[in-house]
Amino acid sequence: MRKEVEALDIADVTANWVNKQALEARTEQRIRELADLAHTPLFFGRLDYGGGAHEGHHFYIGRRHVHDAVGEPMVLDWRAPVSQPFYQASRTVPLGVDLRRRFGYTGGELTAYEDERLTGPAGPDAAPRTSRLLQEEIERPRVGPMRDIVATIQPEQDEIVRSGLGGTVCVQGGPGTGKTAVGLHRVAYLLYAHRERLARTGTLVIGPNRSFLHYIEQVLPALGELEVAQATVADLVAHVEVRSVDAPTAALVKGDARMAEVLRRALRSYITLPTEPVVVERGSRRWRIPAYELAEIVTELQEREIRYGAAGEALPQRIAHAVLVRMEEAGEAPDDRVQDAVARHHAVKAAVKAVWPRVDPAKLVLRLLSEPEFLAAHAEGLLGAEEQRAIVWAKPARGVKSAKWSAADAVLIDEAQDLVQRTPSLGHVVLDEAQDLSPMQYRAVGRRCSTGSATVLGDLAQGTTPWATAGWREALAHLGKPDAVVEELTAGFRVPREVISYASRLLPHMSPGLREVSSVREAPGSLDVHRVPGGAEDGAGTADTEGSAEDGSEGGSQGGAEDGAAGGALDAAVVGACRTALLREGSIGLIAADVRIPALAAALTAAGLPFLDPGRETTAESRLTLVPASLAKGLEYDYVVLDEPAAVVDGEPDERTGLRRLYVVLTRAVSGLTVVHRRPLPHQLAAPGPRESTL
After folding, report:
1. Is 173 assigned to a binding site?
2. CA proximity to 222, closest of 441, 361, 41
3. Predicted local confidence at residue 231, as pLDDT
4. What CA dihedral angle connects 459, 465, 466 and 467, to 10 degrees?
5. Residues with Cβ < 8 Å from 100, sequence gap 6 or more?
6. Could you tell me where the DSSP H helices lie in 421-563?
7. Beta-carbon neighbour count of residue 25 at 10 Å?
8. Residue 611: partners with Cβ closer than 8 Å, 6 or more residues away
């Protein structure tokens, strides 16, 4: 198929240079879409139909459509309607399928197949209740970036993937439920089902950070989709350079949805009702528009609630129209050219500048944050005095370029920008790790899909910002999609049952009411908890029965990091755990509190263990990644070594956020988790628990 496209001669089929360039670009894209992928088979399943419209036929299911030399289909795209029974059919509802076959591959070579008969009596060839090949595919070692899950999509995931373009879907899913993969595959499905429409309007995937985007960036190209943009929220609102970090109190206020109304009021305050008439001279005639009539025009534009910039552009035309009415009443016959000339008249331009001046969005936010009186005037009844003081700069900046903007300030500028000029909307937006967005950030994302739809992905239990989402309905309202359908994924496929059960002990203390993920994978021995002697718990029983009492000797330059011989013992134990993990196949993630990263980096270097930073692609030769806890969200590793859980909790501004951060890092493992600690474990992880070993 690729050679057919490469052999096309378009020299004689293009009418002009523009058409030639467009056709060449489309041909090059098609060649890229048909590129071979190493170790990725073209098909992974087969359906044999015993009834219905396809009775007597069998179809191979794969990542993309493949046809033979005469155009007959050999492999059907997994997104095609006829492929859906591969994911949805069961013995209860076979959907006309007599037999479903799954293929197993090793390094791209076909090594096994497994049949599941869906009709007739269950015979000796009926597949086991849990597919062995499906289990092996889920558990296949993670080396390199995230991969597609087309061979393992489950029925409840498939229903979300194939939901229509017209509506917004919010997916609440705990660790390992596949919500990120579902969101990416939904984009691939929508591009298949609505390609022309989305080609015009565009699609966008929004992730929490660059490391996460790098991790997922190969999923869609592997499915032949190359035109989906990826960005973080910070990328969307990058109107100014971010050079500072807000205090939590200030960030909370700036991220509150009330700031949208403060900005609207502040912007509208620049509008003033005219007190002088406009006099337009044309030839020997003078045309006068009195102040009261100008005020009526201005008031009408205000009441229409159109964008400030659009209204400012309409005002001179409205004034010019009033002049043309008088010309017609005097017997003249002006046309559109006359109206445009009047709108450009210096008297009209001066009047517009006086009553509806141009406003720079960044300067508007700068004034709000620099002038307490200006902020107070427009935040009255919205923000309290303490909240206003929290966001006003102690030392006002001289200008936009010299100001030390924060990430929250950039979002405010984006809001102001939209008040002045409407933000273009895309056809579909996928928002991952949405639980960490502030209301103002939701509004920023919502502007990018105001006329399109969205897929919102997140887990309320993994919210680790001070403004983390409390409930999806409120968040969806801020997004501008209050009628979105909320789906919940509760079946876990990534994290072993032993690990997710251990992490779920934290749920009642940080997110009461959320359902625990029920993992379909049992992996005895997948969880180990090792205690290093020298902590506050020595002589007082195991960590499972201890509280999280602070040891006064644990301060110092690393915050909660240990000092002296005890700190060295912990570092050595962590390095040893990494060495043990590296004896196994797959990727290894060493996750620790951010303040512990320098010490662990030094220990790994001294031990001769090379390691990668988050976002760098693992390889067969370099499989260990050192991950700060703040960047672990959304990532996954075959084996995880977790350093000092108490330090992870202490690294956050409050206990609830700290426990949520700990919940995130505990659930990054696909095959095994090793916890190494010297300080007492957080008491929320209390017994009954795994038997600890002392290192």
Report:
1. yes
2. 41
3. 96
4. -60
5. 45, 46, 47, 48, 85, 86, 89, 115, 116, 118, 127
6. 439-447, 472-479, 497-503, 507-510
7. 10
8. 590, 601, 604, 622, 624, 625, 626
C-alpha–C-alpha distance, residues 603 and 547, integer Å: 28
Tokens of 221: 């190209």
| Three-class HEC string of 160-181 | HHCCCCCCCEEEEECCCCCHHH
Secondary element (H or E) of residue 575: helix 564-582
Which H or E run contains 428?
A: strand 428-431
Nearest to 97 by CA among 114, 79, 116: 116
Token pair belonging to 446: 């919502």
Structure tokens at 596: 């512990």
Strands 285-289 and 278-282 come out as: antiparallel
Annotation-wise, does 452 bind a ligand? Answer: no
Q: Would you call 531 helix, strand, or coil by DSSP?
A: strand
User: Tokens 């209860």 — which residue?
Assistant: 92
- How far apart are the C-alpha atoms of 146 and 73, rounded to whole Å? 29
Spacing of C-alpha 636 from chain mean position: 16
CA distance 442 to 473: 12
Per-residue DSSP letter, 345: S
User: Which amino acid, residue 398?
Assistant: R
CA dist., res. 12 & res. 4, Å (int):
17
The pTM (predicted TM-score) of the whole model is 0.84
89 vs 95: CA distance, rounded Å: 6
Beta strand segments in 532-595, E: 588-592
Q: How many CA atoms lie within 13 A of 403 on its CB side?
A: 27
- In single-letter form, the type of residue at position 187 comes to V
Residue 401 labeled ligand binder: no
**Domains of the chain and CATH, by start:** 2-33 (no CATH), 36-140 (no CATH), 152-239+248-255+361-489 (3.40.50.300), 278-355 (no CATH), 494-694 (3.40.50.300)
| Structure tokens belonging to residue 171 | 């997916």
The 3-state DSSP class for residue 51 equals: coil
| Amino acid letter, 348 | V
Per-residue H/E/C for 472-491? HHHHHHHHCCCCCEEEEECE
Q: Which residues pair with 62 in a beta bridge?
A: 43, 77
| Local structure of residue 143 (DSSP, 8 states) | -
Return the pLDDT at 106: 80
Relative to beta strand 491-492, strand 518-519 is: parallel
Does 625 appear as a known binding residue? no
Interatomic CA distance for residues 324 and 327, integer angstroms = 5
For residue 177, say whether it is annotated as part of any ligand binding site. Answer: yes
Q: Which residues have C-beta within 8 Å of that of residue 138, sequence separation ≥ 6? A: 152, 493, 494, 521
Sign of CA dihedral 186, 190, 192, 198: negative
Averages of pLDDT over runs of 10 residues in the chain (695 residues) are 85 75 86 78 90 85 89 92 92 91 86 88 56 71 71 90 94 91 94 92 93 86 86 96 93 97 97 94 91 96 92 96 93 90 95 96 97 97 96 91 95 98 96 96 97 96 89 96 94 88 93 85 86 66 35 38 66 96 94 97 95 84 93 90 97 92 94 95 76 58
Is beta strand 169-173 parallel, antiparallel or unpaired with respect to 203-207? unpaired
**Cα dist from 362 to 393, 397, 545, 609, whole Å:** 15, 12, 54, 47
Closest by Cα among 360, 355, 283, 285 to 319: 355
Beta strands in 227-339 (DSSP E): 229-232, 242-244, 278-282, 285-289
d(C-alpha 223, C-alpha 158), whole Å: 16
> Reading across the β-sheet that carries 66-67, which strands appear in turn?
66-67, 73-77, 58-62, 43-49, 97-106, 109-117
Any known ligand binding at 174? yes
First to last CA, the chain: 59
Could you give the strand order of the β-sheet that contains 169-173, starting from the edge strand earlier in sequence?
A: 229-232, 203-207, 428-431, 453-458, 169-173, 485-489
- φ/ψ of 436, rounded to 5, equals -95, 5
Percent of residues in the chain assigned helix, strand, coil, to nearest 5: 40, 15, 40
